Amino acid sequence: MNQSAQPLVMRSDRDGITTLALNRPEALNALSPSLFEELQAHLTNISNTPEETGVVILTGNGRSFSAGNDLKAIEKGEKAATPYQQAETLDFIERMPQPVIASVRGHCYTGALELVIACDLLICSEDARFCDTHGKWGMVPTWGMTNRLPERVGPLVARDLMYSGRVVAGTEAEQIGLANRCVPDTDLDTSAHEWAETIVANSWHTLREEKKQMRLLAEMNRDDGIKWAREHGPGAAPDMLERIRGAFQR
Fold first, then answer.
1. Hey, is 114 helix, strand or coil?
2. Domain shared by 142 and 222, yes or no
3. Which residues on adjacent β-strands are paired with residue 21?
4. Please, which residues have CB within 8 angstroms of residue 143's CB and are 6 or more apart in sequence?
5. What is the pLDDT of residue 25?
6. Are residues 23 and 87 in the same domain?
7. CA 227, CA 229: separation in Å to the nearest integer?
8. 77: left (phi > 0), else alpha (psi -120 to 50), else beta?
9. Which of 64, 96, 138, 172 sits between 20 and 30 A of 117, alpha carbons compared?
10. Residues 233-248: b if buried by 16+ CB within 10 A, e if exposed
11. What is the extent of the structural domain holding 230?
């Protein structure tokens, strides 16, 4: 864990919504091994306390979500705590019970792009800039981009983004399906939280089962997936009848 006075990832909790903010604004929130270690610790804690958090917002402090991998740390030979720590953290985001919303402004490059496409949903500001620079630096994706980016935007668009390394603005990100929504820069934080509030008002039981089933069923053929959901689902939430009665009383 980071031993400095300032945490590399800041956490705030409000009304069932947990916000995690990358906190290296002076370095455009570059993804160092230490930052990933703190992020992983927060995500593990959130996953282990499901009664406290229904939805997670992942964002970055300052003018950028993240410029991507910390190239200075790579140059210095800094290593992650385990060989596949970063990739496993992204896998964990997909498996953790709570939906995760990526809220992106400014730079979102390479490793940061891999991070946000591991999240369930993505909202960005008009000034957001997405880019895959693996080719520029002679790197090869190892955190899952070659799987997740085609899944998100389709193979044809993914090839364009990865092969060319071109920059995609926030408005285009929404158009190609990389982002769910693009909003004015000044509205990003409010819009992300309002979206999270809408989601967290629904049954957490349902949200978590939907997230789990979409991940599991993607690995099956269509007929097997439909059969699995029918035969192995956990059933309705304990508060289903209470929710239905409440709707009639409004």
1. helix
2. no
3. 10, 59
4. 86, 87, 90, 111, 114, 115
5. 96
6. yes
7. 6
8. left
9. 138
10. eeeebeeeeeeeeeee
11. 204-248
214: which 2 tokens? 């979409």
Strand partners, 104: 124
Quote the CA–CA distance of 153 and 173 in Å, as a whole number.
Answer: 9
Nearest residue to 183 (alpha-carbon basis) of 127, 107, 129: 127
Do the domain assignments include residue 2? no
Gap between the Cα atoms of 250 and 137, Å rounded = 58
Q: What is the Cα 53 distance to its own chain's centre?
A: 15
Q: Amino acid identity of 123?
A: I
Same domain, 115 and 194: yes
3-state secondary structure labels for all residues of 6-20 = CCCEEEEEECCEEEE
Instruction: Please give the Cα distance from 179 to 123 (Å, whole number).
Output: 6
Q: Amino acid identity, residue 171?
A: T
Beta-bridge partner residues of 59: 21
Q: Edge-to-edge strands of the sheet including 121-125?
A: 9-14, 17-22, 55-60, 100-104, 121-125, 181-183
pLDDT digits (tens, 9 = 90+) for 101-139: 999 999 999 999 999 999 999 999 999 999 999 999 899
Q: What is the pLDDT of residues 167-220, one digit of tens each?
A: 999 999 999 999 999 999 999 999 999 999 999 999 999 999 999 999 999 999
Residue 98 tokens, joined? 């709570």
Place of tokens 């953290």: 89
Please count the helices (runs of H) and the strands (runs of E) in the chain. Answer: 12, 9
Report the DSSP pairing between strands 9-14 and 107-109: unpaired
